[in-house]
Specification:
Layout lengths: L9 H14 L3 H8 L10 H11 L4 H12 L7 H4 L4 H6 L4 H16 L12 H9 L6 H10 L12 H11 L7 H8 L6 H16 L7
Length: 216
């Protein structure tokens, strides 16, 4: 992991943003426009990644409604108990078949010991993403968002997130929506503070478009 502060408090994020403005002065105006940037802290482990899987390819409002119902299913937040829940019960709350199968693979990996979320605390960003994406159903976006919100990793930038891409386009005055690979490459200049940059741009998206870019 980076030696930079974890993104788990307003003060820690402000430290990162101070460094970011020094690296890229364009971000100063964006920070001024949004004001205080708050962290989002989610549960680690299976509950945290289940929530992220829930939100894949959905609007924030739809994901919130489905997640609220999912939490009401007995055992849904425990990987061992999840394996005893039928697919029909999970799909009834709004999960697709694909998302159910992804959670099942993750639950099996956790219960077998093949996936150890605490191991992520010892890994740098690239290795942590690779460790998660080695498990079927966990793509780069899911891995990166988990590392940011559940592990508090300070140097993650989910370039595949559409709201983030739109925010960067608006905030930096780009002529077109940046492609994923293009944005990932551009974000390298913000290392090792990329998580704070992502939070800054998500906040900018919320302020400018009056809608949240991530499930809070």
């Amino acid at each position: 992991m980076s030696s930079s502060p974890r993104i788990d408090s307003v003060a820690a994020i402000a430290v990162h943003l101070d460094h970011l403005v020094g690296i890229d002065p364009r971000l100063a105006a964006i920070w001024t426009a949004v004001g205080e940037v708050r962290p989002r802290i989610d549960a680690a482990g299976f509950p945290g990644i289940a929530r992220i899987v829930c939100g894949q390819l959905l609007s924030v409002a739809s994901a919130a409604a489905i997640w609220s119902r999912y939490q009401g299913v007995a055992g849904a937040l425990d990987p061992a108990a999840f394996l005893g829940i039928g697919e029909a019960e999970i799909r009834a709350v709004g999960f697709s078949g694909g998302k159910y199968r992804t959670l099942r693979v993750i639950a099996e990996a956790v219960t077998s010991g093949a996936l150890d979320f605490s191991h992520l605390e010892t890994l740098p960003a690239r290795d942590a993403v690779a460790y998660l994406t080695a498990h079927k159903g966990i793509g780069p976006w899911t891995a990166e968002v988990y590392l940011m919100f559940c592990a508090g990793h300070p140097d993650i930038f989910p370039a595949g997130d559409l709201a983030l891409r739109k925010a960067v386009q608006d905030g930096l005055g780009l002529d077109s929506l940046p492609q994923i690979a293009e944005l990932a490459e551009a974000a390298l200049q913000w290392a090792p503070h990329r998580s704070a940059a992502a939070l800054l741009f998500w906040r900018y998206y919320a302020v400018c478009r009056n809608r949240e870019g991530v499930l809070s």
